[in-house]
Amino acid sequence: MDVMTCLREKVPGEVFDYQVLMDCLSRYRKPRDAVTRLLSSGRIIRIKKGIYSFGQAYRRAPISREYLANLIYGPSYVSLDYALYYYGMIPERVHSLTSVTINRSRSFDTPVGLFSYRTLPDSKYSIGAILDSISGTSFMIASPEKALVDKVWTDRRFSGKRLSDYKNYLADDLRIEQAELDRLDMEVLRIIAESFASLKVNNLVSFLSRTEG
User: Fold this and answer.
1) What's the predicted TM-score (pTM) here?
2) Residues 6+ apart with CB under 8 A from 1
C-alpha cells in the first residue's frame, strides 16, 4: 500500500498529524526523506510543524479553516473579527482567521491563510464559546455575543468610557447594523459581562440595553 492510500484510509477528514504520517511511512528506511518528497510534490501540505493536510488532488472536501484555527494554537476558539463576519454581523470579508487564547498572542502565516490569536485571561476566556460545524467538521467558536464582547474588550483603539461613544463605534467603526445588534441575547451578554468585570464591557451592555428593540 502506498503512503497516500494509507493516509486516505486512516484519515476521515482532510487534516492529520505527524504521528499518522509516520505510521504510514513506517516501512520506509528514511521516512523524513519521504516526507520531503511528499511535500515537494504537493501531495501533502505542511500547515505548521506537526500538522498536515492533503494536497488539492487528494482532498475529498475543502479544508475547514475554523477547525484548523483550533488545532494550530491552543487552547483557543474562533472569535473577534472573523467570528463577527462568520455570523454576518460585519460586512467586510475578514482574511485573517482570528481567535482568542489563554496563551500569549501569536500569528501564524500558513499555506492556507493567516491565523491570529489574541490573549484573554482565564476568567474571561471560557464563558460564551460554543461548538459549531460546517459539512460535518466541528470547531469551537465564540457565540455572537462573546465575539462582540471579545472584540470590544481587546480593541485598544476604543476606550469605551462613555456610553455615547458606542453608537459611532458599533455603527461606523465596526459597521454593525442595528438589526444585527437587536438579534443579540441580552441575558447571554450580561452573563458574559459578569465574567469580564470590565467597565468597558459593562458600558457595552448598558448601551445595547438602552437601544434594545
Assistant:
1) 0.93
2) 9
